[in-house]
TrEMBL record:
<dbReference type="InterPro" id="IPR015345">
    <property type="entry name" value="Cytokinin_DH_FAD/cytokin-bd"/>
</dbReference>
<dbReference type="InterPro" id="IPR036318">
    <property type="entry name" value="FAD-bd_PCMH-like_sf"/>
</dbReference>
<dbReference type="Pfam" id="PF01565">
    <property type="entry name" value="FAD_binding_4"/>
</dbReference>
<dbReference type="InterPro" id="IPR006093">
    <property type="entry name" value="Oxy_OxRdtase_FAD_BS"/>
</dbReference>
<dbReference type="GO" id="GO:0071949">
    <property type="term" value="F:FAD binding"/>
</dbReference>
<dbReference type="InterPro" id="IPR016169">
    <property type="entry name" value="FAD-bd_PCMH_sub2"/>
</dbReference>
<keyword id="KW-0274">FAD</keyword>
<dbReference type="InterPro" id="IPR006094">
    <property type="entry name" value="Oxid_FAD_bind_N"/>
</dbReference>
<dbReference type="InterPro" id="IPR050432">
    <property type="entry name" value="FAD-linked_Oxidoreductases_BP"/>
</dbReference>
<dbReference type="GO" id="GO:0009690">
    <property type="term" value="P:cytokinin metabolic process"/>
</dbReference>
<dbReference type="InterPro" id="IPR016170">
    <property type="entry name" value="Cytok_DH_C_sf"/>
</dbReference>
<keyword id="KW-0325">Glycoprotein</keyword>
<protein>
    <recommendedName>
        <fullName>cytokinin dehydrogenase</fullName>
        <ecNumber>1.5.99.12</ecNumber>
    </recommendedName>
</protein>
<keyword id="KW-0285">Flavoprotein</keyword>
<dbReference type="Pfam" id="PF09265">
    <property type="entry name" value="Cytokin-bind"/>
</dbReference>
<comment type="similarity">
    <text>Belongs to the oxygen-dependent FAD-linked oxidoreductase family.</text>
</comment>
<keyword id="KW-0732">Signal</keyword>
Length: 517
């Protein structure tokens, strides 16, 4: 009995020591971070902003936010956290413009690096035969557009919305209506500078550190922080002919979309969207557009049908207007849209590319921008798109869509299989994006719960009833689900993780790995 008492006493003493030591470690974390030799600064008080994102559903507060002034600030922070060892539980998340949907740029109790503070290198455009621009990983695409246009140049591949950072979109893929020709943004990068999860600062490209280069592109921020990118440019047009036509027949719609993405010089941008409107009243798909035939157009009634809008753009310069008109006419003549539904407008290249910002301004003024956004993005193989449309647009989303539904095909040949992004196996696959907004104080068909239930039905159907569907901007909660998502790419993904971020301290908000303890 004496021995048992002794052992128990010893155990209590031992556990108390561990607890005191742990508490000491945890409470000493902020003070040790405070002493980091940074050119920028670290903030422990104003951290609420870093716990928010566009999705507006997840809110994890970090312990601190680093505002880096140099790449070394980021490397120093990572190295410091590494030195604290696994027991500190501290993680690091790069935050671009915070336009993630599920807290992907957040770090619960960790350190968020506010990438927009990083202003080095100063943006520099290199004109010439193969023009490019060097930018900071925290640069917004809209700023890159303005800077490169000063040289008559522009990046080739875009996202629909430009107030996103280079590091944020390159960690995913970055796609829009130009992707069928140029591939996603990750196919248009020549070089990167990365701070890895080991705190090393490395340059990488196809020729140098190629494995790191491919890992980081589409790598969901798991291998390193992108601090600099070299982006390919092309001559920029001055103007854009922007065209919308409608289809009631989904087969004709996709046949024409696929025809256009395989044509050499037809259009420079091809997207499309679904109009679900049981009331028969057409929504604002044509506002700011002019009908080619106003009389016929005014007679067109949707009759409550689900319609499919094909959206095309042709770039041109004013001196080539006649040629552009002829080209447009020629390519439109091969399409089988409803003839009375041809709508056109001509806008500057900047206005075209920055088009979603106009909606942002309007929505902000109505208090409808900072609402929950239960978005769902899927890549659907071409062979599955008809079944998908039948079930999703025919059975699941029958009344309204609570926001735009984009649908457009891209060519797999423009994607590099060595990058980390996961896409379907077929030569052509579709992006289908359900971009719903849950308006405040609504619990009907536009309430958050209702939209989430619909999304769940769409995911369940797509993942169980169809073959080869992948989520874009993926979100999963368990490692098993991630493993399924990556499929044969899972093992290489794990190997890359252990090589570049062995303690798994980077970007925990993706919920793929837990920091090693
Ligand atoms: P954040 O949300 O801040 O970060 C995204 C992820 O990348 C996080 O995991 C973060 O930790 C990581 N990360 C951020 N910066 C870095 C870095 N420098 N190095 C390493 N990792 C980093 N996407 C498209 O492809 N096409 C579209 O047309 C499109 N349209 C959109 C329209 C709107 C209105 C919105 C809100 C989003 C849209 N997106 C689109 C999605 C967008 O590309 C992603 O949400 C992207 O992650 C947002 O970029 P961000 O700069 O805000 O990144």
């Amino acid at each position: 009995e004496h021995n048992i008492l002794f052992i128990r006493g010893f155990m209590i003493l031992f556990l108390s020591c561990i607890t005191i030591r742990l508490n000491f470690c945890i409470s000493s974390i902020p003070s040790s971070l405070k002493t980091l030799p940074l050119e920028g600064y670290i903030n422990f008080d104003e951290v609420g902003h870093a716990a928010r994102d566009f999705g507006n559903r997840y809110r994890y507060h970090p312990m601190a936010v680093v505002h880096p002034k140099s790449v070394s600030d980021i490397a120093v922070t990572i190295r410091h956290i590494l030195q604290m060892g696994p027991r500190s539980q501290l993680t690091v998340a790069a935050r671009g413009h915070g336009h993630s949907l599920h807290g992907q740029a957040q770090a619960h109790g960790g350190v968020v690096i506010n990438m927009e503070s990083l202003k080095v290198p100063e943006m520099q455009v290199y004109p010439g035969n193969s023009p490019y621009v060097d930018v900071s990983g925290g640069e917004l695409w809209i700023n890159i557009l303005h800077a490169s246009l000063q040289y008559g140049l522009a990046p080739k591949s875009w996202t629909d919305y430009l107030h996103l950072t280079v590091g944020g979109t390159l960690s995913n893929a970055g796609i829009s209506g130009q992707a069928f020709r140029h591939g996603p943004q990750i196919s248009n990068v020549q070089q990167l500078e990365i701070v890895t999860g080991k705190g090393e600062v490395l340059n990488c490209s196809l020729e140098q550190n190629g494995e790191l280069f491919h890992s980081v592109l589409g790598g969901l921020g798991q291998f390193g922080i992108i601090t600099r990118a070299r982006i390919s440019l092309e001559p920029a047009p001055a103007m854009v002919k922007w065209i919308r036509v409608l289809y009631a027949d989904f087969t004709a719609f996709t046949r024409d979309q696929e025809l256009l993405i395989s044509a050499e010089n037809a259009f420079d941008y091809i997207e499309g969207f679904v109009i679900i409107n049981r009331t028969g009243l057409l929504n604002n798909w044509r506002s700011s557009f002019n009908p080619q035939d106003p009389v016929q157009a005014s007679r067109f009634k949707s009759d409550g049908r689900t319609l499919f809008c094909l959206e095309m753009a042709k770039y041109y310069n004013p001196e080539d207007t006649d040629l552009a008109n002829q080209e447009v006419e020629k390519h439109l003549s091969h399409l089988s849209y409803i003839p009375s539904t041809l709508f056109l407008t001509e806008v500057t290249y900047i206005d075209f590319l920055d088009r979603v910002h106009v909606s942002e301004v309007k929505l902000r003024s109505k208090g409808l921008w900072d609402v929950p956004h239960p978005w769902l993005n899927l890549f659907i193989p071409k062979s599955q798109i008809h079944n998908f449309a039948e079930v999703v647009f025919g059975n699941i989303l029958t009344e309204t869509s609570n926001g735009p539904i984009l649908i457009y095909p891209v060519n797999k040949s423009k994607w590099d299989n060595r990058t980390s992004v996961v896409i379907p196996e077929e030569d052509i696959f579709y992006l289908v994006a359900f971009l719903a907004s849950a308006v405040p104080s609504s619990n009907g068909s536009d309430g958050l719960e209702h939209i989430l239930t619909q999304n769940k039905r769409i995911i369940e159907y797509s993942e169980r009833g169809l073959i080869g569907v992948k989520q874009y901007l993926p979100h999963y909660n368990t490692q098993e689900e991630w493993q399924d998502h990556f499929g044969p790419k899972w093992e290489p993904f794990l190997q890359r993780k252990s090589r570049y971020d062995p303690l798994a301290i980077l970007n925990p908000g993706q919920r793929i790995f837990q920091k090693a303890t």
